[in-house]
From TrEMBL:
It comes from the Bacteria. The keyword Lyase does not apply. Keywords: ATP-binding, Nucleotide-binding. PANTHER family: CHROMOSOMAL REPLICATION INITIATOR PROTEIN DNAA, PHAGE-LIKE ELEMENT PBSX PROTEIN XKDC. This is ATP-binding protein. InterPro entries: AAA+_ATPase, IstB_ATP-bd, P-loop_NTPase. The keyword Transmembrane does not apply. GO terms for molecular function: ATP binding. Residues 65-204 form the AAA+ ATPase domain. Transmembrane segments: none annotated.
Length: 230
């Protein structure tokens, strides 16, 4: 009887992993293989916020505010790694359904479905709205506008993103999100969307950003794991 239950659990977790859109490679990102390679407190903060979120998820998810997790920081600082570590932990250890959605490719793919009919788009939209935990990676990724300093998004993405975040905010649905940008999210996504994201992530916002001094001194790159040792 016990073995049967274990087997059913394994099958259920297998199904959850398969429907998460997280590839086998990224299912291997864990807190254990997130190394303290730099000794930088900012990397430690990303790890700590994400780790605590995963550990206390059952309590955090029911909070009125702060039921979500935001990770903002430099490229290569490990935002996606720790976001996947949370997602993998929730799926495997707690049997929670997570859906991965990349801000750039996800919306591209979604809008390309309009040719096949709007019912297809609505099906994707409802999937993003209703899933137990949504992981939105790379919010606002792209080439920055020279004057504004952050990428501009289309009206379609702007509106879709508002609808999605409004739904998840209104319905208290945990959302894990990452971005290279922080305050810029307000003008770029609009105050209505960005302020909901920040409110949802109150107390659970990990930051690994360069200081203005580091930016002026051209020290950019030192938070990037991909550039370590170069
Ligand atoms: N502390 C770390 N220990 C081990 N591997 C790391 C660490 N930080 C990052 N990596 C690895 O470096 C690569 C880049 O990290 P990741 O994709 O998480 O960065 P990111 O902050 O999401 O960057 P981007 O904004 O470009 O998407 C990944 O393969 C990740 O697993
Ligand atoms: Mg990333």
């Amino acid at each position: 009887m016990y073995e049967q239950c274990e087997c059913r659990d394994k099958k259920r977790i297998q199904k959850i992993l398969q429907s998460s859109n997280i590839t086998a490679d990224f299912q291997r990102k864990t807190f254990g293989n997130f190394l303290d390679w730099s000794g930088d407190q900012r990397h430690q903060e990303l790890h700590q916020k994400a780790y605590t979120y995963a550990k206390d998820f059952e309590e955090i998810r029911h909070r009125e505010e702060g039921h979500s997790l935001g990770l903002v920081g430099a490229s290569g600082s490990g935002k996606s790694h720790v976001a996947f570590a949370v997602a993998n932990n929730l799926m495997v250890k707690k049997g929670i359904r997570v859906l991965y959605f990349n801000f750039v490719n996800g919306f591209k793919e979604m809008f390309s479905r309009y040719d096949a009919g709007s019912a297809d788009v609505q099906r994707i939209r409802e999937g993003l709205q209703s899933v137990e935990v949504l992981l939105i990676d790379d919010i606002l990724k792209g080439k920055p506008d020279e004057k504004k300093g952050y990428p501009e998004i289309s009206k379609a993405v702007y509106d879709e993103m508002y609808g999605l975040i409004e739904y998840r905010h209104f319905n208290h649905k945990p959302t894990i999100w990452t971005s290279e940008y922080y305050y810029e999210l307000i003008p770029a996504l609009g105050e209505a969307t960005a302020s909901r994201l920040f409110e949802m992530s109150k107390g659970n916002l990990g930051k690994a950003l360069y200081t203005p001094e580091e930016m002026t001194a051209g020290e950019i790159g030192k938070l990037n794991y991909r550039l370590r040792g170069l």
